[in-house]
Amino acid sequence: MAKKTWADMTPTQKKIVVATGIAEVALTTWCAKDLRQRPAAAVRGPKVLWGPLLSVQPFGPIAYLLVGRR
To answer: In the chain, where are the structural domains located?
Structure first.
């Protein structure tokens, strides 16, 4: 099965891809801002490790929200 290109997608599929991308950027930005402002004592694990983990989409930001904050 060949990968679909942007041109092969239906308009609805394109909208879903764009909306998902916007949601990932917004969530990652929110988590990065929260991580920067939150004291180290309120974060599980070293803050320095959570920064790079936020770039692992979509699991990093979700893990930070569920596990990383106290």
So the answer is: 11-68
Q: Which of 51, 48, 49 is nearest to 32 (CA)?
A: 51
Concatenated DSSP letters of the chain: -PPPPGGGS-HHHHHHHHHHHHHHHHHHHHHHHHHHHS-GGGBSS-HHHHHHHTTSTTHHHHHIIIIIB-
What six digits make up the tokens of 16?
């879903």
Task: Tell me how crowded residue 27 is: count the other CB atoms within 10 A of its CB.
Answer: 18
Mean pLDDT of 46-66: 94
| C-beta separation of 65 from 33 below 8 A | no
Q: What is the pTM of this model?
A: 0.83
